Amino acid sequence: MPLPAASPAASPSAPAARPLLMDCDTGIDDALALLYLCLTPGTDLRAVTTVAGNTGAERSALNTLQVLETVGRTDIPVAAGAETALTGAVHDEVSTVHGEGGLGGVALPPPTAAPDPRSAVELIVETARAAGGTLDILATAPLTNLALALRAEPRLPELVHHVTVMGGAVHHPGNISPVAEANIGHDPEAAAAVLAADWDLTLVPLDVTMRENLTEEQRQRLLASDSPAGRLAGEILDCYFTFHETTCLPFRGCACHDPLAAAIAVGEVVPRLAPRLPVTVDTADGAARGALVADTRGIHRGYPELPGAGATVVLETDGTFGELLVERLTRSGQETAR
């Protein structure tokens, strides 16, 4: 299947947006990120690949197609990828977090578009080659697909402009163990390979995503909007809010994990603090398995760049992204960003 043509520039004088591929495990926050990207002017979402995480890879592909159809983007190829971690491990689906099926238990019509016949790895590699070194990748899921793509095409870092990963916890507690965040912890070997690859990479950890929140008042605005994207977001967030309220937040609301990473990936949110740090992942079979290990020993000296620094790690944003996201999803009558 041929790749879709590049999206036109926002105006004759504006530079063309770099093509973007999103690798995800479409649960609720991935869905919000997809909607945000499709409704953000100047964004060229070229392809989506899915992996087992919040739900299985094939189910995630179906969820992705349904979300994209809500905003009329049936032109974007969606390919399913790895159903297990590199070690063959299978983790349980998190219906208590994302609801039955991954979208808060909300029933959506079957999509008119079908999953792309290519594998996720094939779509990643072919999209990177076609973009000629300009492709940005946004990963909001376990990093198995990207690790497998690196195996299939060792030159992939040369073909990719930038990688943004929602994952890890630096000073913040983990969310699947005291130290491990889900996207890193569900496949530590894959995460270690991706972080070690020779490409420009930004990490968006729990340290910032847990501080960018949506509230019940904002969810009600989403539900009351004239925008199909806004109404869908409001419906699927009900389940997500319940999980957050009963486990990790002192109010009814949620963290903006994947949408924040998407906004950083396309440059709409500029971090306040994002030092470049050496990073790795604990892959040993112990209590710290899956922990992101970031060298923050320069914290009291303004984080001077250390030899061998491997990633830009976002540690502080301004805390206002939730309102921007609601505004973007509720703007009635807006056209998708193509």
TrEMBL record:
A GO term, aspect molecular function: purine nucleosidase activity
Keyword Hydrolase in annotation: yes
Keyword presence, Hydrolase: yes
Protein keywords: Glycosidase, Hydrolase
Pfam families, per database record: IU_nuc_hydro
InterPro entries, per database record: Inosine/uridine_hydrolase_dom, IUNH, Ribo_hydro-like
GO CC field: cytosol
Example of a GO biological process term: purine nucleoside catabolic process
Domain Inosine/uridine-preferring nucleoside hydrolase: 21-299
PANTHER family given in the database record: INOSINE-URIDINE PREFERRING NUCLEOSIDE HYDROLASE (PTHR12304), URIDINE NUCLEOSIDASE (PTHR12304:SF4)
UniProt name for this protein: Inosine/uridine-preferring nucleoside hydrolase domain-containing protein
Upper taxonomic lineage: Bacteria, Bacillati, Actinomycetota, Actinomycetes, Kitasatosporales
